[in-house]
Specification:
By secondary structure, the protein is mainly α. Helix content is 62%, strand content 0%.
């Protein structure tokens, strides 16, 4: 059986097993998301063919970013690559930390876990090689960091709307730094951002998500209190 067909069969079997268990069960591994609702192998375009013009364009853009970066930019990109909602303290303020907002940390950890598992399914299906020089050899498409950035920014901007512009600006930089680091192609970032958006859209229709989101919103309300009506 061709390699691509083998991956497809394995993915279908995995999705079927997850759906049979039911997403509400802890052994399914998902908190707010049924992976059958967001089949990224259907919803995303495939990565560029190895010998295509788009692939060459991707390679040239990564090479240009690496050539243009300086030591300070490289250090900042490496330092700011942790997938945690509290990375956005740069947008919200230093008071935004795990000790002050435990419900927020727990909620976004569940969201992040669901997004990562969903992305891992797609990475295993496409198994795109990473850019030359990356530590990992495969799993470039779609970018998990870009999916994290999009999903977290969409939700956090609703919870702290007075910081919406800063949150999205920081999320875009977070995602694009993966190109600066030479770990992802631009098409990986675009697909990851789309994947994170799709994942959050589905989660927002889950009843358990709605309850946890409301609790998180109450905890974060002091960071952006509602406008007072005269």
């Amino acid at each position: 059986m061709p390699r691509g067909c083998t991956r497809l069969v394995l993915l279908v079997l995995l999705l079927a097993a997850l759906c049979a268990r039911g997403v509400a069960k802890t052994d399914a591994g998902f908190h707010y998301l049924d992976p059958a609702q967001v089949d990224l192998t259907v919803l995303l375009p495939p990565p560029p063919d190895f010998d295509s013009a788009q692939q060459r364009d991707d390679e040239e853009k990564v090479a240009a970013e690496i050539a243009a970066r300086n030591s300070s930019q490289l250090a900042q990109a490496k330092a700011g690559s942790q997938r945690s909602v509290f990375f956005f303290a740069g947008s919200i303020g230093p008071q935004f930390n795990p000790s002050r907002f435990p419900l927020t940390g727990a909620f976004f950890a569940r969201v992040g876990s669901d997004v990562k598992k969903l992305i891992d399914l797609a990475k295993a299906y496409w198994s795109r090689p990473r850019p030359d020089g990356a530590v990992k050899n495969r799993g470039s498409y779609p970018s998990g960091h870009a999916a994290f950035a999009a999903s977290t920014a969409i939700l956090l901007a609703q919870l702290v709307p007075c910081k919406r512009e800063q949150i999205f600006a920081q999320a875009r930089t977070f995602a694009e730094n993966r190109i600066v680091l030479g770990l992802h192609y631009p098409s990986d970032i675009a697909a990851g951002w789309t994947a994170g958006t799709l994942a959050v859209f589905v989660m927002m229709h889950n009843s358990a998500f709605e309850g946890d989101f409301a609790a998180t919103k109450a905890e974060l309300q002091k960071e952006c209190p509602p406008a007072r009506s005269d």
